[in-house]
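Q: How would the C-alpha cells look for this protein?
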Amino acid sequence: MNQILSSEFSSSPELLDKLNQNSILKTYQEGEIILDENASIRSIPIVMKGLLKVIRTEEDGREILLYYIKAGESCIMSFLGGMHNEKSIVKAEVEEVSEILFLPIDKVSLFIKEYPEWLDYIFRLYHKRFEELLDIINAIAFKKVDERLLNLLSKKSEISQSKTIIITHEQLANELGTARVVVSRLLKQLEDSGKLKLGRNKITLLDSI
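A: Here is the predicted structure in C-alpha cell form.
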C-alpha cells in the first residue's frame, strides 16, 4: 500500500487492509481521461502516484481548471456524485503518468459507517476543495487574466518542482477558460518583462517572477 495512504490512515491498519483488498490499481498515461462529464460514477479514484486535473466544461465548449488531485488525494466530486447515484459534472484528466486506486462506491459508503478515519479523510478533502473553488471564483471575479496566468504557472511549477513547464498555449487557455490568442499575447508580454522565457511547447519561469 502506498506510503502516503499509510500515513493518512496510520491509526487504522484495518482500513488500509480493506482499501487494499477491495480496490483495483490501474496505471494511466498523460492525457487519458479517467472520468468524463455525464458518466456514471461506479468507483472513486485515489491517486497513489502522479497527478490528475479536474476540469469543468461550459455550454459553449470552454473549459476551466478547478483543481489538481495529488498523490494521497481523491476527487470529492466523485464521492458526492457516486454516493447520490448522480452523473459526473466534471472531467478528470491525467496530467502526468499516474497510478490510481479505484474503490467501488458501495465500499465508500460502507467505510463511512465503519471507519471514522475514512469519514475524516473525506471531510478534509471536501474542506480543501471548497477553499480551492473559492480561490477560483475570486480569481475569475476580481483578478485580471495575466495575474491568473502567472498564478497558474506558479502552481504548475510548484507541483512539478521544476521551473520549466511543458505545456501549450492552447492547454493554458483551456485551463483558464479564455482564448488561446489572449494567452499567447500575455505570455509574450510576460517574456518581454523578464518574468519567463518561452520555448516550443514549454515555458521557463525566471527568478523575477
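The helical segments are 3-8, 13-22, 76-83, 105-114, 116-142, 145-160, 169-176, 180-192.

The mean pLDDT is 89.

Upvote if useful.
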